[in-house]
């Protein structure tokens, strides 16, 4: 038996796969090397995984049902960790069809192949973005999430609904993880930690939206990986049929200016800040209520931004040979 990991050259996917490989799991990874951001970064993540004998990779676009089905025909899986997605709130305003094709068509293709090839257990990536402009904090999985403020958020909520339908109709176990602002080594160049670090080092101005009056539940990658694998290990352990979503975050929102100051202090460089209004699709605050995932899977994040941000910066300097 193997575990299929989609989006394996991505930020979260590559980290999850590495930990699974290190403990001896047989991993089949798929990715299509989307050029949404630097493809070389994705290829370098993959090089780390290719050092393991228990790893096999295929270049597959999940929006192509024939390509996905060929993987299911070739291998036998007992679980799928589905992390492939078109990410990014702001880019969804520019390229909506990328989100429809990958996040909705691709997600449905994965579920359809699970149904047809008797794979009963799927853990998949959702997003804190589904909470939209929710002002009740912390965000709870019991809150209504039918007012998304970006197309990205709408596609991730659609994934949750489609997953429940497949559970209801075909007895698939589906668990969605609503990730909250993940950061750390090998992170994405379109996210704040990377952008701020790069520009502060280069003494370039950074854009600070909503005049800095924003808060994010920044979650370090190791905590995300630990939570994801705990869910993957436990899904259907008791033989129960289930379809649920969980928040997976740090449970501690940080003010954007405070987050920037951690980067400034570690680099010992003052940022040049350009204050700007809030952008379309952005939300002012994210804050994860993690009581459900804590109770069901013993998830407890342990990494503060004062620990996590320096680890990212050290990796960033090493990666760029600074």
What do you see in this structure?
With 322 residues, the chain is α/β, with parallel strands linked by helices. The chain has a single domain (2-183, 219-250, 288-302), classed as NAD(P)-binding Rossmann-like Domain (Rossmann fold), CATH 3.40.50. 41% of the residues lie in helices and 18% in strands. It has ten helices and 13 strands. The strands form four sheets. A seven-stranded parallel sheet has the order 3-2-1-4-5-6-11, with helices on both faces. Helix 1 (11-22) packs parallel to helix 2 (39-49), helix 1 crosses helix 7 and helix 3 runs parallel beside helix 4 (96-116). The longest helix is centred in the first third of the chain and has 21 residues, at 96-116.
A few lines on this structure:
Helices cover 41% and strands 18% of the residues. The chain is an alpha/beta fold and 322 residues long. It has a 7-stranded parallel sheet, with helices on both faces. It has a two-stranded parallel ribbon with strand order 7-10.
């Amino acid at each position: 038996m193997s575990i299929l990991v989609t989006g394996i050259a991505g930020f979260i996917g590559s980290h999850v796969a590495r930990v699974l490989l290190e403990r001896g799991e047989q991993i089949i990874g798929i990715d299509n090397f989307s050029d949404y951001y630097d493809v070389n970064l994705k290829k370098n993540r993959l090089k780390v995984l290719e050092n393991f004998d228990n790893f096999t990779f295929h270049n597959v676009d999940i929006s192509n049902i024939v390509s996905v089905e060929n993987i299911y025909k070739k291998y036998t899986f007992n679980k799928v960790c589905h992390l492939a997605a078109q990410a990014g709130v702001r880019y969804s305003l520019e390229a909506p069809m990328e989100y429809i094709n990958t996040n909705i068509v691709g997600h449905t293709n994965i579920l359809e192949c699970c149904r047809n090839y008797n794979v009963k257990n799927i853990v998949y990536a959702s997003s804190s973005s589904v909470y939209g402009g929710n002002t009740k904090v912390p965000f709870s999985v019991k809150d209504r999430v039918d007012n998304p403020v970006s197309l990205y958020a709408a596609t991730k909520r659609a994934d949750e609904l489609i997953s429940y339908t497949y559970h209801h109709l075909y007895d698939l176990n589906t668990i969605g993880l609503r990730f909250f602002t993940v950061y750390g080594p090998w992170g994405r160049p379109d996210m704040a930690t990377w952008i701020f670090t790069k520009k502060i080092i280069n003494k370039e101005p950074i854009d600070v939206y909503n005049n800095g009056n924003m808060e994010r539940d920044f979650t370090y990658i190791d905590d995300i990986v630990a939570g994801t694998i705990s869910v993957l290990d436990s899904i259907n352990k008791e033989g129960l049929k289930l379809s649920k979503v969980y928040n997976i975050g740090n449970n501690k929102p940080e003010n954007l200016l405070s987050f920037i100051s951690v980067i400034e202090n570690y680099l010992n460089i003052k940022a040049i800040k350009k204050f700007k209004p809030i952008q379309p699709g952005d939300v002012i605050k994210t804050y994860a209520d993690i009581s459900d995932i804590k109770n069901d899977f013993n998830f407890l994040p342990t990494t503060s931004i004062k620990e996590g941000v320096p680890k990212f910066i050290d990796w960033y300097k090493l990666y760029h040979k600074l």
